[in-house]
Amino acid sequence: MNSIVIISLWILLLFNKVLCQDETVSVLRSEKVELTCPIDIATCGELHSLKWFKGTDRIAVVSGDGEVAKVEGSFNDRVSLDHKAQSSRLVFKSVEISDEDTYLCETTFLEPSESCDNSGAYSIALNVYAIPSVIALQDGSRNSIKNGSHVGPMREGQDLQVVCEVYGARPAPVISWHRSGGVVRDSQIVEDHNGLFTVKSTLSLTLSRQELGSTYNCRVEMKELQLVVDNHFHIDLQVRPTKINLSGVEHHTVQGTKVLLQCKVSGARPAANMTWYNTSKLISDEDTGADQLTSISTKTYLQNDGTFETISQMIFTATRFENGASIRCEADNIVMREDGDRPLHDTLVLEVMYPPVVSVKPDNITVNETQDFLVFCEYEANPASLEIVRWFRNGQEIKLANAPARYEGGTPEQTALLIKNSTRNDIGTYTCELSNSIGTDVSDNEIYVDVLYKPIVVLNMDPETPVVENDQANITLLCNIVDGNPLVLTKVRWFLDGEFLKELPECDEASTGDENLCEVDPTKMLLQNVGREFIGNYSCEGFNVAGWGDTSEENPLDIYYEPGNATMVHYPHVAIKRKSVTFNCSIEDRGNPIATRYRWLRGGKPVMDVVTPSWTVDPVGLDSRTTFSCFAYNEGGEGNAAEVRLEVHAPPAFVQKLHPYTGALYSTSNISLACRVECVPSCTISWFKDGVGIEDSDERYYITSQYLAAEPATGDFESAYSVLHFNMSAWPDGILDRIRDSSNYSCVSSNNSAGPGVRSTTYFGVEYPPENTSLSNAAISVEEGKIPPRIVCSSRAYPEPAFYWTRNGETIVKGSALVVNSVMGRDDAGVYTCVAFNKHGNHSTDAVIDIHYKPTCSIVRKEVNNEDVLLCTATGSPRESEFEWSLKYENDTLQAHKTSGDAYESILTLDNDVSAMRTYVCVASNSVGMGPPCEIEVAGYVAWWLKGDILTPYILIAAVAALLLAVILICVIIICICRRKRRQDKFTGESSTAGGSQIEPGEYENLPFHGLATPPKKEKEAITAKSNTYIY
């Protein structure tokens, strides 16, 4: 009963503690937290003080106005106060576990009103939480288990202990173990370390096959922090296999069939190892592979319960050797091997049906043609009864039924075969093929039958013909056996054009040394240094143990030899330049094969594009003056060449002729004309002026001549070169006359045997630079906005001059005429220069273009001869202008104004009596017309100080300054006089203390001390505190 009461009281206190709290604050350790105490000043009035309690211990106090605030005890370094009118905050910089408690805020008011609901305390529950510092899994040996890792490998029946530990948490976390969604029982230990809890949960298991594939999860929950952490691990459990099954062939199989045997093992972890046996022999890796008939493949499959199913398949081709064999499959894993258990096994016995295994004998048979021979066929088979027997020769089946007279046997009852009256067609390899109900097989060996018969030969030559005679080659005649048995010739007979030459070997007992032909190879005969006399058709016949064979077909021996000597002629005998010459080459012996092509040489160099016996050179040039050679050639070689040297003449022709025109400056001191004529045989050159020959006696000229050598670079033959020199010292004044000395000069050559002479003429002109340059109009006046007439420039010169126009140093027009196609402005006026020029110099002249335009005016006001005047200046072309003055308004007049001036400006004298502002207008006109008016505004007459004179401002400033100075001096004098008079009155009058008051009645009535019995004494210089005014 007492225990029930105690429990009830404890529950009551707990509920009271929870329900009576005004606020609950939760915070993580080491974080900052503020506990706020509300202050109801509006209802309760002015605050006197506020105290903070942790449980029952006071930890801080603050005055109502916040000027006094104190944190007490050990909280002084970690806690601060933040006091305001409506609330007070207790601030923890870094909260600790020991700070968890109920905090009380007690407020005291000076005069609390009746409506103040002040219980005297505000309760705050502070909960301090801590996140776990470590959540770990460990096995029974205190080894760490990583999250998601595998534990093991473990064996079935072993004990497993796993501990899930949580360190440094607050409040104490809840740990639970889960497997496949269900909760697993565990044992827990909870320890408190200075407010931080350590919880250990231990999971203990005895492992069985049920744990296969299991995952265990340790869940840590802290509802206050809404924290859930899962750590899980997997158990790697090893178990033995539970079942083995070998399946595959039922009843029997046939040789050559792919046999699949499958061995399935289940319930093992790790996967089982599979081993195959043929009876008691292990089938190893050496018996399998790409080159073997057997292949083994093993695959492992993970099952839902975590065990492995292992399927091993052995595939092999059934042979007769597997007939009756026991195939066994064994399986185990590490669990069975460590426990010493025998492997699981299953056995299957094979029955293989196979076709006959055949062999023939004897290995070799040799017979002469027409003899009989017998071959045998032996076999082993399952079943042993035969259905078909067939014999093959060289892979081709022998049709026994087609020649019953030649064959006996070859049936299922009698497998041996007798061949009668053998021929060469019976030579070859013989095999036997037998068939039963399972299949067919051919003998794995063969019989070689050899039938001897006479040879068949063919004649070959080495090297192959034709051959060249000049090579002095050796020809080997080969008598090769094409058919015959044996394929060996012991004797050979040789024939030329059907006539017997020799039989080899020649065994003559009397011959010795190199002449002994008994041991030579009879199939070869050597022809040494063959020439044209060896040409003919060769044949042979051979002999073997069967006798002499037939003669071979004839094989021709062809020998090439070169053509004979060449002869050459040409026409014409003497070639002419630029004409053609034809060469003809001929031979008598045309060689073998007959020569049809020729080779030509020119100057010792081959002419590649000519192979005919006739060659025409067109045209003939300097390079044709050389040797020409020709010879015929064929596959046998080249014949002897014929050679001639060609003589070439050149008719007169100009290498350097006179230009159609030749010019020279009239004052030049060195003048000459030259021409060069190619001619072989040589020729002479003469000079003519206007058709008249120039003699050597003419002192005005002298002639130099020479005969030049040929020039291969240009292809020019030998040439005559002549120069006509002008002896200027023999001419009047040493200069040429511009008219008389301009003439036609000719260079004329003589004839030669190759052709007529040639003539070249030039017109010789006396040249001089431009002079007497003139213009069609040297000065032009044109109104602005109009187009001026054209100006044509001409000059005298030879050659004819060219022209261009410049202005201000820049070329504006090329040509003799200056044509302006656009209207001109006043900026276009100026000097335009025409320049005439040729290769000897230039000459120029100027044209002046004047642009006329109406005048524009401007008015300035100035003083002339002490008079105020207006000056109107005009700018126009022509510059001379007439001026007219007026007023802008009609009611004004200029009758009283005086004007003067000249053709360039006009002066209007202003009247000083005019006081109103006026606008004066000036208009200028010239021969072009009246220009635009210009105007100026002039104010009326003003006093001198209002005029815009430069000294007026200074005079006015000086006057004002002087006036101010005078006023200041007068004021100073008056002040001094007044002060002096007051001092005199003060010292000569009666004092107030002697009974004679000098104060007017009512003087003190308005002062601050009015009403006193005796007024206070006045200071000599009393100063008011507020106005800073001195009272005397």
Description of the structure:
The protein is mainly β and 1032 residues long. It has nine domains: 23-129, Immunoglobulin-like (Sandwich), CATH 2.60.40; 134-238, Sandwich (Immunoglobulin-like); 243-350, Immunoglobulins (Immunoglobulin-like, Sandwich); 354-452, Immunoglobulins (Immunoglobulin-like), CATH 2.60.40.10; 456-505 and 522-560, Immunoglobulins (Immunoglobulin-like); 566-646, Sandwich (Immunoglobulin-like); 649-763, Sandwich (Immunoglobulin-like); 768-850, Immunoglobulin-like (Sandwich), CATH 2.60.40.10; and more. 6% of the residues lie in helices and 50% in strands. It is built from four helices and 80 strands. Strands 30, 32, 33, 36, 37, 38, 40 and 43 form an eight-stranded mixed β-sheet that branches. Strands 66, 68, 69, 71, 72, 73, 75 and 76 form an eight-stranded mixed β-sheet that branches. Strands 58, 60, 61, 64, 65, 67 and 70 form a seven-stranded mixed β-sheet that branches. A hairpin with a 3-residue loop joins strand 6 (79-83) and strand 7. The radius of gyration is 75 Å and the shape is flat. Mean pLDDT is 85; it is low at 1-19 and 987-1032. The chain crosses the membrane at residues 954-978. Residues 16-123, 132-228, 241-349, 356-443, 455-558, 563-647, 652-763, 770-850, 855-939 form the Ig-like domain. It comes from Culex tarsalis.
